[in-house]
Amino acid sequence: MGILIRLMKQTFSRVVFVAWVVATTAVAVFAGDQKCSGTARECDQQIRQFLSGKRFLGATIDDKNPGLVIKSVAPNGPAENAGLLPGDRLIACNSKSLTHATSRDFKQLLADARATGELRFIVWRRGVYKRIRATLEPYSKEQLDKIIDAHLSQSHPSSAGAH
């Protein structure tokens, strides 16, 4: 494994990544179990402002203690387009080892990746290491609408779909 990590450090540039976790965080923040105190319009504006200019990977990640595994990928999202699959174990990303990473470490990687959006993964899939290159993409209007609709339907049921 040490040779693999050294190879990754030599081969991959140092950049980190922003991903779908941002969207998940936004939904969790704005669509918790409780009703929020803002109006539907205020929430719509706040969510759009929060996600404006942010990019995503389109994958959900499970913390397997140790390490991280892709739980799911969004259809037609950057993760799927790059070839990441559910069940892929994340070994490294942009020269950072993820073999003992936690979901908290992963979130920090996401927060640090705004600059380039370039991701170079090494994943373990069915007994084989694979290199996968992905590029983060900005949220589309449709994705923002989905995130907002999820919040409105949970916290503002009378105005869901009305933005």
CATH fold call of the domain at 2-30 and 54-138: Pdz3 Domain
- Largest sheet composition: 6 strands, antiparallel
Compute the number of strand runs: 8
Strand content: 15-25%
CA distance, first residue to last residue: 51 Å
Fourth-level CATH superfamily of the domain at 2-30 and 54-138: PDZ domain
The string of secondary-structure elements, in order, is: HHHEEEHEEHEEEH
Radius of gyration: 17 Å
Shape: elongated
Q: Unreliable stretches, pLDDT < 50, 5 or more residues?
A: 1-33
Number of helices: 6
- Share of helical residues: 25-40%
Helix/strand structural class: alpha+beta
- Rounded mean pLDDT is 77
CATH architecture assignment name of the domain at 2-30 and 54-138: Roll
CATH class of the domain at 2-30 and 54-138: Mainly Beta
Question: Which labels suit this protein?
Answer:
elongated; disordered N terminus; 6-stranded antiparallel sheet; 39% helix; 163 residues; two-stranded antiparallel sheet; Pdz3 Domain; alpha+beta; single chain
Task: Describe the fold and architecture.
It is built from 6 helices and 8 strands. By secondary structure, it is an alpha+beta fold. It has a domain at 2-30 and 54-138: Pdz3 Domain (Roll). The relative contact order is 0.22.
Summarize the structure.
Residues 1-33 have low confidence and may be disordered.
